[in-house]
């Protein structure tokens, strides 16, 4: 029997989980209460993407052998994968107490504590991993993830660079390093990290996906297509590659791609996001082909999948929005100018023209475009979640945290931009923290915004309202209320810029932007398509085209599709639509 177990473990190590499963079934048939075979059976199920099926095997192995350390570790890891961190934490505490030198258990405990939202406990666990093995990358990668979650981006990047230095051949370290480098405006280094990952493991799908995204951000669409096609050679039904390739393909190329997407859809897991990704791809293909019925059908199905996975809580969103507004009353003034370069917050609804506006500003030599910065939201989150006052001390701490999170800026920079659209919710904090902060508010017909969001697959759960038309109307109404409130509290400090005016008169809009910042206008600001560098959002391809007005009023062709959204808009908040 020991030889069979050794053979099964070798199969696990080589990734041959079907062989491991077959051997485990054979072993359990001979001995139904053998904990070792139970553990291998659980590993095999998890390895084949079925963690729910693997869980009871680990539980039974522990029932048969309570001191079976490896089975307990596997159980904890599976619980974490299933989103059951509260159940996993007790197992991991037991393991680290029994064997304080178990770095794998400490690493799992760090991840579990992150999932539970206990940053201090996670930091203790991850520091223990590093102390046990300071020459290995794993601890630094984990700590970087934790630091990134709390907004310490510079420290996170330092840990990622340390991990890559310690283990130059670690593919995961190179992948993890790529996006943070892009976020601090080091596009060449970000691309190089992704290229190293691919050269280290040409068959590694996540590495090629990351490289493809860096190429898209830098405007190298044809090279990005090659990477997505390489992914599909490795994994023909890979949903992310199919979706992203469909977005950048020509109509003719997508006509060839369509059968592959349909084939993948037949075999996809009903419970995961891949089904939604494939429907987004098919919607894009149908739209290019002029198939309006197919366009509407696939968008509806794609968004339904995502809405089920990331439901929107309208009540909680309303309470949060009202609490944020209640913090600031008319007469609130900003603190004196901060030290150094001043921020320009370009905000509004997503897909309202914030990327285009940032590109126009970034064409000025005194302005450094930094994209969608996550630091302000993460710096303010503990204060908002805890209901803590934004007093002088908190404002000073916020300014310090913002300054610490900035990348090195070129000599002569007077302003940097942050185009996180959802910063409209935080405008009170941003304006109160610095009297020299500028806010540029992009306004766009909400019906065109809704159509754009409905056909876009946006990353993360922060924009989960975009997957439900009624939820989208609710959130848009909250947005309109909040912007009216910020105008009343901070009169004269917010520049409203209509997207429709911007695309109709680019030079005129760019002159208004320069005046708002107190800068002399330069002609380059009127040609944002020539100024766009790396773009880390869905607008990457659009920004490299001359400004056009083709999207203005486009919602009218899809009014039936958008009917639930249109019915949900509050006419008192949107009088211009009447």
TrEMBL record:
InterPro entries: P-loop_NTPase, TPR-like_helical_dom_sf, TPR_rpt, TPST-like. Keywords: Transferase. Gene3D superfamilies: P-loop containing nucleotide triphosphate hydrolases (3.40.50.300), Tetratricopeptide repeat domain (1.25.40.10). Transmembrane segments: none annotated. It comes from the Bacteria. Pfam families: Sulfotransfer_3, TPR_19, TPR_8. The keyword Transferase applies. One of its GO terms (molecular function) is protein-tyrosine sulfotransferase activity. This is Tetratricopeptide repeat protein. It comes from Ruegeria sp. PrR005.
